[in-house]
Write a structure and sequence with these properties.
The chain is of the alpha/beta class. The protein has a single domain (28-226), classed as SGNH hydrolase (Rossmann fold). The chain has helices at residues 2-22, 41-44, 55-61, 83-98, 109-116, 121-142, 162-179, 187-191, 214-226, and strands at 33-39, 71-75, 102-106, 147-151, 183-185. It has a five-stranded parallel sheet with strand order 2-1-3-4-5, sandwiched between helices. The radius of gyration is 23 Å and the shape is globular.
């Protein structure tokens, strides 16, 4: 008799367990904060060891925009991307596919390199301004409720001419961002006068190893956190 009761109880458990499991609420992804990073190698974390020490990953892991369990994260940054490529390829992904609630943007460094390689500064700056305007216009139009943050550029004293050109780019970033009510992460001010933030400072580094060290990426993350509303 006892064995029959135990068998019946076991059978009842087998019946009830799926019912109890099905009563649990599923993940509600549509209620999660969607964070998307757009931009160039800085957004991609290029040079960080490991790459997850890049600033966008640090922002995600630190819960800068929402807690980690409540955040859906997408890094669309591509090393070498210019402002035109961000406009043409990354902005459509943000608007048409991922539809983030928070967007961070780091762009302009590869446009700047064109000037350092001999391109006409006035032409490059005008093109950068037009592209950044279209980037922010597209995001503001397609994602009207999104919080958008764009960084300015840090200077690299080891590269001749950077100290003169970078402030011109940052004037463009500040002016365009203000016209779209977009917050600027002051990476330029955060890096200015500090050492140990760039790979180019290390012994034997190449002239154009201008990406941040892990400490530099932490400084970038701090600048974005400081820009939060």
């Amino acid at each position: 008799m006892r064995s029959r009761l135990l068998a019946a109880a076991a059978g009842l458990c087998l019946v009830l367990l799926p019912t109890a499991a099905s009563a649990e609420l599923p993940w509600q992804f549509e209620q999660h904060t969607r964070y998307m990073a757009l931009g160039d190698s800085l957004a991609a974390g290029y040079g960080a060891v490991p790459v997850t020490q890049g600033y966008v990953y640090l922002l995600y892991h630190s819960g800068a925009y929402d807690t980690v369990p409540h955040t859906l994260f997408c890094d669309a940054g591509v090393p070498g991307a210019t402002s035109r490529q961000v406009l043409d390829h990354q902005v459509p992904l943000a608007i048409e596919a991922f539809r983030p609630d928070v967007v961070t943007i780091t762009v302009g460094g590869n446009d700047l390199l064109r000037i350092l390689s001999g391109a006409n500064p006035a032409d490059v700056l005008a093109e950068f301004q037009a592209n950044l305007t279209q980037i922010l216009l597209g995001l503001r139009t397609g994602l009207p409720g999104a919080r958008i943050y764009v960084s300015n550029l840090y200077t690299v004293p080891e590269i001749t001419g950077a100290d003169q050109i970078v402030p011109l780019f940052n004037q463009v970033v500040g002016g365009v961002a203000a016209s779209f009510d977009v917050r600027v992460a002051d990476v330029y001010g955060t890096f200015l006068g500090r050492s140990g933030l760039l790979l180019v400072e290390r012994h034997g580094a190449g002239r154009y190893e201008v990406h941040p060290t892990n400490a530099g990426y932490r400084a970038m993350a701090d600048a974005f956190v400081a820009a939060i509303d």
